[in-house]
Amino acid sequence: MITFGRYRIVHRIASGGMAEVYRAIAVGEGGFEKEVVLKRIRPELAGDPRFGAMFVEEARVAATLSHANIVQVLDFGRVDGEYFLTLESVRGRDLRQVLDTLAAAGTLLPLDLALLVAVDVARALDYAHRRKGADGHPLGLVHRDISPANVLLSFEGEVKLADFGIAKVLGDDCQTEAGALKGKVAYMSPEQASGMPVDQRSDIFSFGVLLHVLFTGEHPFAGGGALEILERVRRAEIAPPRRAGEPLPEDVLAIVTRCLARRPEDRFASAADLLRALEAFAGGHPARATATDLSVFMKGRFPYEVPLPIVALDRLVEQELRLEATDEGLATFTAVAAAPSPAADSPAAVAASPSTDRAAAREPGAEPSTGARRGRTVAAVVLLLALVGGSVALWRWLPPAATENGNGRDPRLAAGPSPAPASAPTGAPASARTTMPAPVPASVPAALAA
């Protein structure tokens, strides 16, 4: 069992430039348990006071936000001098994974669901931009990393904006160094990509890029390496967005185009104005989607994850940590509800494939996926479990060296008594005999299959 303060670590979800993110169980009095997401500074950076200050700033900013469409901060503190942050656990997929899975199946997110996601993210952004401090004055918060990877879609139909790790409060003393770039290049505004000061209209441009990808399935700046993408972002040269298979409504086209204006003064003046424009169009849409519709879509498209029993989780996390000493290793240890095996090229198979999960779903200019290494690691663990299971079955089938039939012989063996093992001579105490490993819980293979 791996513990961190009052939290029991289940498995690692992801590792970023500054922090590692884990699924964990918060443990309290009287058997209280709650699944959370725990974020810790990377071990090699934990001793650097600059990263500690950045982490504290993230917690300070995120703690001021309480909204249904924003991932909530639950706790913050230090264990043995190491800072941590715990967030609510959202069971589902991020928007990047959803769009990549749909693209692999040759389809797009239905327009009514895309509108639902867009409106909910705009609500989160509007709330964050309008948030006031303890003195009653607006904080002037800028997210600076609006992208599909930071939009979470839950199996219950919730839409939540995540990761205020590089958010900035305008006028704060802790400013970004001149020329330093923070955020995903492909989702930056021209001024952010140029290392210039940014305000909340920068988030509106990034949101426009997200809308373009959401409605068309194509990235406006995709193609080439990171430097080429950076230059296209700075110029903000974008062809009119088009939706394959059906025309993009004029109102949506106008909203996306205005968000993506190169000059900040040509964009929506605020997230509130942007939200009003989206709600006006969504309200007049003939088939406006609801959270229930999104929930049905998510559960139908992706395997529904359920937690493993705690005993199985403890055993699996020990295996994962050993493997990660030599490999980036296993990304998830969650059981998948039983379902018919889909055809290899079916949408369901694409959704269930590890290659469409977090490691394989990339932004333009991102590093290659580690999915192949994960696949090899999972295969090795499955083989190991199969060998252990076979050993257990053989141990159960083999007869004992002596039975209680009065003559010391097993009636199934005609050739005489079995010779005693060399490592456990006849008459040796029971503690000296070889002890076989306990059977692996039946839930483990299902967990590895996830």
Walkthrough of the structure:
The chain has 450 residues and is of the alpha+beta class. The chain has 13 helices and 13 strands. A 6-stranded antiparallel β-sheet has the order 1-2-3-4-6-5, covered by helices on one side. It has a 3-stranded antiparallel β-sheet with strand order 7-9-10. Strand 1 (3-4) and strand 2 form a beta hairpin. Helix 3 runs antiparallel to helix 5, helix 3 (111-130) packs antiparallel against helix 8 and helix 5 (200-216) runs antiparallel to helix 7 (250-259). The longest helix is centred in the C-terminal third of the chain and has 27 residues, at 371-397. The chain is globular, with a radius of gyration of 27 Å. The protein starts with a strand and ends with a helix. Mean pLDDT is 73; it is low at 170-181, 306-362, 365-374 and 400-450.
Topology of helices and strands:
Elements: E1 3-4, E2 7-15, E3 19-27, E4 33-41, H1 49-63, E5 73-79, E6 82-88, E7 92-94, H2 95-104, H3 111-130, E8 141-142, E9 151-154, E10 159-161, E11 168-169, H4 190-193, H5 200-216, H6 226-235, H7 250-259, H8 271-283, H9 291-301, E12 305-306, H10 310-323, E13 335-336, H11 347-352, H12 371-397, H13 443-449
Antiparallel strand pairs: 1-2, 2-3, 3-4, 4-6, 5-6, 7-9, 8-11, 9-10, 12-13
Helix pairs in contact: 3-5, 3-8, 5-7, 7-8
